[in-house]
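Standup notes
- DV: blocked on the single-chain target, sequence here:
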Amino acid sequence: MPPQELPAVGRDIADQYVRGMQLPDSRAYVRRRPYRAWGTSHLIAHVKRVAEAVRRRYPKVHKVAIGDISSKEGGYLPPHHSHQSGRDIDIGFYFKKKPAGYPTAFIVGTEKNMDLAANWLMLERFCSTTRQRGGVEKIFLVHELQKVFYDHAKKRKVSQRTLDQMFQYPRGRGADHGCIRHEPGHDDHIHVRFKCPPGDGKCSGADR
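- DV (later): unblocked, structure below
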């Protein structure tokens, strides 16, 4: 069934919810709450592309858990302060072995239980869009897990330039640097924040 189009609604505390649609079902991910899986069309496109790219590279990996995006109408979505305008999405981790309770619940990631290669590809693909109109603005992930992925990438000979562009680590938790930033509570999932939709002059985000 094709994704349903969502008409624009009024502005919330951050920006305007425009050109929205429901994230469709996929073999690459599981929507934990489909009724909270409404987002801007550019978020939907990026998320599908990244999840499907991971599945193609690692065909044996389990489906990743997709958490909240926004409600169909936009606006306040408890218990979040964000997730009001279709530009925020919570995504779980890929694990070496799918844990009990996942993907119904997010599971805390560790160096031992996560599939580092699959998660690295997800992070790298999202961060690669930061210079695109409508690409990723920031990803929130606790500093401790930033170190895990930073060290993993170093071992894989990823360039220092790429690491500097992607990670706040090894700078302090409050450093204004990198695509991936520390935020408490983000040890069992990442929170991906997208820029404003291309062509939306009323959006108050960094990229119009």
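- Follow-up: Confidence is low (pLDDT under 50) at residues 1-16.
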